[in-house]
Design brief:
Two copies of one chain form a homodimer. Chain A is of the alpha+beta class and 206 residues long. Chain A has six helices and seven strands. The first copy, chain A, has a domain of 140 residues: NADH Oxidase. The longest helix of chain A has 23 residues.
């Protein structure tokens, strides 16, 4: 009787597992046809994800490729990345940041790191934050255009956060965790904000 | 004889004028179909533009709309914009920055401004630079997807540049010129850099 029940339920269970595990909605770079304008205007912060789903590694690599296509002052490219997909590591990362509970349901997290000589004055100091921000924005747009949800969790320049995440990742001195980007399949249907405000535009002079 | 020559040449001259003045390549948001991935991966710094060309005001407004769609920490939206299209003003702006000669051939320039209380410690101070960087990147991607060329000219946090541009724009205290984005029709065909470097990716741990 038990066996019969199992045989009856097995296909249903397999289907249910696939529903949560299989990335039926995720698109590769080749498949992702969302226009740049649509991606920019409809991107939104996603903080709740379908639990247990996985993001294929080639999709994560493509998202990192978008990150590395960011502009960089004097072509310095100060970036590297840690990608976390293991459930236990995501949980531990969530515990290391005061506002990262969304990592508990995320399928992955990208942590863009900057390698900079923070003691150096002048140009390098002035622009690496801007490079890393463009990297983060590219990653958010790329993920959104592929059907994934993501959110920009701030790390730098809040000292306690930089310290906690550096310790968690065992980073060498001079390598700074810049932000955390939880990634996953959105659990709900969010509404992007319309932030256009014509009064912020000054034609020809302020 | 002079009049006959003029009648003969007028249509040719009108055609030539249109060739340089009419934005035959620019696309509105509705027309721009470049995918987000393509825009991110093929965006490049354009520093040489077709002189005398104009960018329709609705296209500039759509590019600013993309800028204002940037993520913003705690939804502060610290941004506003000056848009310059007058030739004389572009020339004067070029003279106010040590690396902005490309403005001499540009059709327009967008200067994203941040309104922040720079004396305030903590969160606001930590994240407005990142907000403004995401704004700048969105503007670059939007312009590229519409067939325009653009480049990120750094202003903040180089003190002399901030001072010179603030004076040029007659900005009140607390309003900071963040970057300058010259815009125009690319004079040549540039090659985007392939900056993907797999060795920068660390799976699970650094």
């Amino acid at each position: 009787m038990k066996k019969a029940l199992f045989l009856l339920l097995a296909p249903l269970m397999a289907f249910a597992a696939c529903q949560s595990k299989c990335p039926e909605n995720v698109k590769t770079t080749q498949e992702a046809k969302m226009s740049a304008e649509e991606a920019i205007l409809t991107r939104l912060s996603v903080r709740s994800f379908k639990e247990g789903a996985e993001i294929p590694q080639n999709v994560l690599t493509d998202i990192l490729k978008a990150g590395m296509a960011a502009p960089s002052a004097m072509d310095r490219r100060p970036w590297s990345f840690v990608v976390i997909t293991q459930k236990e590591r995501l949980k531990a990362l969530a515990a290391a940041h005061p506002h990262a509970k969304m990592l508990l349901s995320a399928s992955a997290a990208i942590i863009p790191l900057a390698t900079v000589d923070l003691s150096q004055p002048g140009m390098e100091k002035a622009f690496w934050i801007q490079d890393m921000s463009a990297v983060t924005e590219n990653i958010l747009l790329s993920a959104h255009s592929k059907g994934l949800g993501a959110v920009w969790v701030g790390v730098y320049s809040v000292d306690e956060r930089v310290k906690a995440i550096s310790e968690f990742l065992e980073l060498p001195a001079g390598t700074v965790p810049f932000s955390i980007i939880p990634l996953g399949y959105p659990a709900g249907q969010g509404e992007p904000k319309d932030k256009f405000d014509e009064s912020r535009i000054h034609w020809e002079k302020f």
